[in-house]
Amino acid sequence: MTVVGTFGLSVRDPALEADVQAGLAAVEEGLLEATKSEVPFITEAAQHLVRAGGKRFRPLLVALAAQFGDPYAPGIVPSAVVVELTHLATLYHDDVMDEADVRRGVPSANTRWGNSVAVLTGDFLFARASHILADLGPDAVRIQAEAFERLVTGQILETAGPSDGRDPVDHYLDVLGGKTGSLVAVACRFGAMMSGADETVVDVLTQYGERLGVAFQLADDVLDIASDSHESGKTPGTDLREGIPTLPVLRLRERAERLGLAEDRELVELLDGDLSDDDRLAEAVSRLRAHPALEQARRDTVRYAEDARSALAPLPECEAKAALVELCDAVVHRAG
């Protein structure tokens, strides 16, 4: 059993391990090549997060999904580069919107160079992804465009908040389907599609990716509260400080409204107050860590991971399927 990639996936089959390792290495080279510019400063800014590392979760899914067809097909590595570049671009933009200080254990681009450079660097990465995508054919362009529309729509809906009468948790889960699930689904779809897998297999893996993507983000929500910066790569409570309505907070508000307990209402008031003060933020994080809302968010994460696992049922038993199943377990493990 060998650990593949920084996500910590254990692969038991030597042939699959070799294929995935080679694929991820090729993606890494592709990312560095795609982020080069004739302007040295642009190269430095564009490679800032590439060189900081990351789980390469989406390229890993491309490589595993490709195992259901020809894993050496020429479009697989470029499509993985496209998906990761798109993801990286959204991180540059997200950090500006969230006023984040740290990303992947290093100063965020907006902290280092300012908001304008961070936004424009994200745009540069989108442009480079589109350039690669153009060589993968019109179907790939359309799929990526549809996913990107969903991603942006999810971000807008998160910013706008739920409409009157809409359950905030349901709204948030729909947001995550767009913001995170859509691109993870594309990773699985591209891997299967570029490998020439049967259309039924492509559809199954796309559904799996959507559900796993939501579970992955829910695990991040839990990590924002439950982990230290070494584990998550960003400062604990970053989402709390920026007032982002992550699932543990939504579950807390839901419980406070339903039960009306004084301690719940007090914690809600703390979260609604000014968390720019480090001591107040630390108190909020500490109290949420001990609150039942965090455990409820963990259970929600497990539910989505189990839904992803169930989606794989129609696929034939093989080492690649076993690895995809294990990814569901890895996501749950991240959430504790």
Tell me the strand order in the biggest sheet. Answer: 1-2
Rounded Rg = 20 Å
* Largest β sheet strand count, sense and barrel closure: 2 strands, antiparallel
**Mean pLDDT value:** 91
What is the H/E string?
EEHHHHHEEHHHHHHHHHHHH
Q: In DSSP terms, counting alpha (H) and pi (I) runs of 4 or more, how many helices? A: 17
Quote the beta fraction. Answer: under 5%
Roughly how much helix do the residues carry, as a percent range?
A: over 70%
Classification by helices and strands: mainly alpha
Anisotropy-based shape:
globular
N-to-C CA distance: 22 Å
Uncertain ranges: none
Extended strand count: 4
Structure characterization notes:
This protein is globular. Helix 1 crosses helix 4 and helix 1 packs across helix 5. It is built from 17 helices and 4 strands. It is an all-alpha fold and 336 residues long. A two-stranded antiparallel sheet has the order 1-2. Strands 3-4 form a two-stranded antiparallel sheet.
Helix-strand blueprint:
Blueprint: E1 2-4, E2 9-11, H1 14-34, H2 40-46, H3 48-51, H4 57-65, H5 76-98, E3 102-103, E4 106-107, H6 109-113, H7 115-134, H8 138-160, H9 168-194, H10 199-226, H11 229-232, H12 238-241, H13 247-259, H14 262-272, H15 278-289, H16 292-311, H17 319-334
Antiparallel strand pairs: 1-2, 3-4
Helix pairs in contact: 1-4, 1-5, 4-5, 4-9, 5-7, 5-9, 8-9, 9-10, 10-16, 10-17, 13-14, 13-16, 16-17
